[in-house]
Specification:
This protein is mostly helical. The protein is 62% helix and 8% strand. The chain has helices at 14-39, 45-56, 64-70, 75-88, 109-129, 136-155; strands at residues 61-63, 91-95, 103-107.
């Protein structure tokens, strides 16, 4: 987006800057803490998200393109993660019979065991590091805020 707007930038005022900086710092520290907590299970956040999505999918399988979207990974990043996860024995790729170019990511028994082992600790980590610091109203407001931000971002998607 830089360079596309020839007008003067709309600089952040002090209150906007404070909100932005606190969000960035908290979100980065939160992800770092959640990553640290998952390391005990030899999983990264993207690994966990892929396994969580697959564990909820019918037959524990999803098309790679759909998985990339719901796991919030670019297709190239997902492809790399799947290669790593295949080596760990958590997933396997299967060709799509209807679409010769498409592939499914399929959770293995080992992948199921990994998510079942990690999930209780991960949920406790999310709860103690995030949810427990929010009132029910905070949760509702954050949900509404981030839904608006997500919808806005979906209206002008990034290139893959």
């Amino acid at each position: 987006m830089a360079g596309q707007n020839a007008t003067t930038p709309r600089w952040l005022n002090p209150a906007e800057m404070k909100a932005w900086r606190r969000y960035i710092i908290a979100s980065r520290r939160l992800i770092e803490a959640l990553e640290y907590d998952l390391a005990a299970h030899e999983l990264s956040m993207p690994d966990y998200e892929v396994l969580a999505q697959l564990s909820d999918a019918p037959g524990r399988r999803m098309r790679m393109s759909e998985l990339a979207e719901v796991a919030m990974l670019s297709r190239s990043r997902l492809s790399h993660r799947i290669k790593v996860m295949e080596k760990a024995g958590w997933v396997k790729r299967e060709a799509c019979t209807e679409d010769k170019r498409g592939f499914f990511a399929v959770m293995t028994t080992q992948g199921w065991k990994a998510i079942v082992a990690a999930a209780p600790d991960h949920v406790e980590s999310v709860r103690s590091r995030f949810i427990d610091h929010l009132s029910q109203n905070d949760q509702r407001v954050l949900s509404e805020i981030f839904n608006r931000v997500t919808q806005s971002l979906k209206e002008s998607p990034l290139e893959d």
